[in-house]
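Q: Give me the 3D complex with nicotinamide-adenine-dinucleotide.
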Amino acid sequence: MRLLIAGGAGYLGSVLIPKLLERSYKVDVVDLFWFGNHLPRQVGVLNKDIFHLTVEDLEPYSQVLFLAGLSNDPMAEYSPSKNFIFNAAAPAYLGYIAKLAKVKRYIYASSCSVYGYTENDLYDESRPVSSSYPYGISKLQGEQAVTQLVDDGFSVISLRKGTISGYSPRMRLDLIVNTMFKTAMRDRSITVNNPSIWRPILSIEDASTAYIRAIEANEGISGVFNIASGNHTVGEVADLVRSAIRERLDVRVSLELKHVQDFRNYKVSVEKAANVLSFHPTGSVKSIIGNLIDSMDKFNDWDNPAYSNIQMFI
Ligand SMILES: NC(=O)c1ccc[n+]([C@@H]2O[C@H](COP(=O)([O-])OP(=O)(O)OC[C@H]3O[C@@H](n4cnc5c(N)ncnc54)[C@H](O)[C@@H]3O)[C@@H](O)[C@H]2O)c1
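A: Here is the predicted complex, encoded as structure tokens.
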């Protein structure tokens, strides 16, 4: 089976793609390579913008994955106009031409940030979404656009992921657990901006598994799925990071608590993904820290701008 992965050279794609190659998929990537190319040599590369793809370009593929766009709030807020073009229009265009090219399935990288500020209830996919900030709105627009393309011959699966963390050859240190790990190792301290808000945390291993389950799901399956390894308050995440570091490295890390208002607070149920996609997460904050420690010598130039999306973008 031949797959085209838009944005496949990013943080998630750089971990997912070697796993797909191991399973004998043929993989091509279309990417602007904002953060370089850390992909295995066997991957076919189209160095271009999604908007320059044509229907003919997509005809060889059975499935198309969208992992592109501006992938966090700081980028989206720095350039709301680019955010809406790359996060809402690009997945809609790609889904539209994929369907015309008779691709069988389209998999869209959605985000739990579509939930916005919720009242501490566990949210499943049937609950209302209400983000009020550019990144969350655009991820929802992308999801809605591609969802309405579903028909008997065209499956669309949207994975609303929690915040991913763990090591990737295209490293990011601007993601919750990764950032805490960076400051814990660099400064022996973690700053928590608001300990009481909830976030679904997703290990990069579980995130990759979710995509594999989606690719391999029965062809009649379409839908929107929450994907997370676990729900935690940010204060708890910091405690789990500290205790995992203490256990593995015998290093003590202090905490600095602040009470900055946050417009994102949500926890999600992954029951639908378990029931429909057979997605059963095995990751945890502890396993993410273990994974980061194992590869730490590859990214311990902590302040390298390449590890921060917003620093590379501006
Ligand atoms: N990382 C997370 O915690 C997380 C959580 C939820 C959802 N997501 C979503 O998952 C996807 C992947 O996230 P990531 O962390 O791997 O992102 P990333 O920023 O590391 O990579 C994005 C890639 O997309 C490419 N790209 C962007 N716009 C493009 C365009 N128009 N044409 C071609 N290539 C383009 C960039 O060059 C980059 O290689 C994103 O859509 C993101 O919004 C990420």
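A quick observation: The first helix runs from residue 13 to 22.
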